[in-house]
Amino acid sequence: MFGLIPLLFTALASAYPNRGPCTGNCWAHDPAMIQRVSDGKYFRFSTGMGIPTHSSPSVKGPWTDIGAAIPEGSSIHLDGVDSKNIWAPDVHYQNDQYYMYYVLSKIGTQTSEIGVATSKTMEPGSWTDHGVIGLPANNNYNRIDPAWISIGGKNYMNFGSFWGDIYQVEMESPLKVGGATPYQISWNATLNHREEGSYEFKHGDYYYLFYSAGIAGKYTKTFPAEGAEYHIRVCRSKTGLGDFVDADGKSCKETGGTMLLSSHGQVFGPGGQGVLNDKDLGVVMYYHYYPLATKQSTTESDNANYRYGWNVLGWKDGWPYVKS
Ligand SMILES: *[C@@H]1O[C@H](CO)[C@@H](O)[C@H](O)[C@H]1NC(C)=O
Q: What keywords is this UniProt entry annotated with (predicted)?
């Protein structure tokens, strides 16, 4: 009897707060968001032709479509893949310039490559493409969804989806992998073991591995089984180089992973997330979602329907939670 009341309170407290506000152009797909060092302007990059780019004076907007980052497409050529159709940008600042990692891939196959481009300003057309980072092909992983991180002064690349889920490799420079061997850092052994779109972020004493799990896209009137659509999970590690566990202490290489954000209200299938330390707002997680109303009224899934969402992350007992 008495147990019931705290249970109810817990259930209420765990409902997700709404996403933060957005004005202007609020479209995004697999977004990467970063603030320019020189003038504090925000840039948001998305999957699409030449990497669609939006900029804004703040996380909230007003966001403006400023064109394609690499309008001429990547110099990488893959059989049956349009080199202008570039996926999953990941952008970081290092050595006085911006590095953009990106993907060319034939959907649903392991015909994929991760490439890199650099720019001093991030303005459309200012990017110099350097082609592939030199990640070796392997049946155990798919070379998609790059997420760079510096740990102990060394460059690391996290990547992957399906097949063996999330892998990590040390890079000899921000442009090249070199001879290091990739190793698995997260895996869901169940059914289709879908994990992708990872993003690693240091906060306090831990490195946090955020990833998207579940079914991406194919969002039409037909609903996947409840909870099977895209959602965001998190794991943590002291070294950032493996040994990721979830909040129950379960290894993230053995189907561990703590739920951070799933469908709620108009936010259907949140994923493709990244994390940003914002000087005004604190730690911000940004992501894309498919508006529920659009999903309920469409018969064809369309990338143009995705939207940009963001929330401030709060921290409790060393774990992030989604704040308003
Ligand atoms: C692992 O995959 C199963 C089946 O798709 C899913 O129900 C479960 O939530 C996933 N677990 C994690 C930790 O991602």
A: Carbohydrate metabolism, Glycoprotein, Glycosidase, Hydrolase, Polysaccharide degradation, Secreted, Signal, Xylan degradation
Pick the catalytic residue: 129, 165, 196, 229?
A: 196
Total number of domains in the chain: 1
Helix and strand counts by DSSP (H, E) for the chain: 2, 21
Name the one residue in this structure whose structure tokens are 């409790």: 316
Within 10 angstroms of residue 66's Cβ, the number of other Cβ atoms is 17
What atom of ligand 1 comes closest to residue 258's alpha carbon? 13
30 counts as catalytic: yes
**What is the per-residue pLDDT across 95-152, written as a single tens digit (0 to 9) for each?**
999 999 999 999 989 999 999 999 999 999 999 999 999 999 999 999 999 999 999 9
Residue 180 lies in domain: 2-322
Task: Give the tokens for residue 100.
Answer: 């953009």
Residue 233 Cβ inside 6 Å of ligand 1? The answer reads yes
Q: Is the CB of 251 under 6 A from ligand 1?
A: no
Contact status, residue 159 vs residue 146, Cβ threshold 8 Å? yes
What is the end-to-end Cα distance of the chain in Å, rounded? 32
Question: Which CATH number does the domain housing residue 172 bear?
Answer: 2.115.10.20
Q: Is 196 a catalytic residue?
A: yes
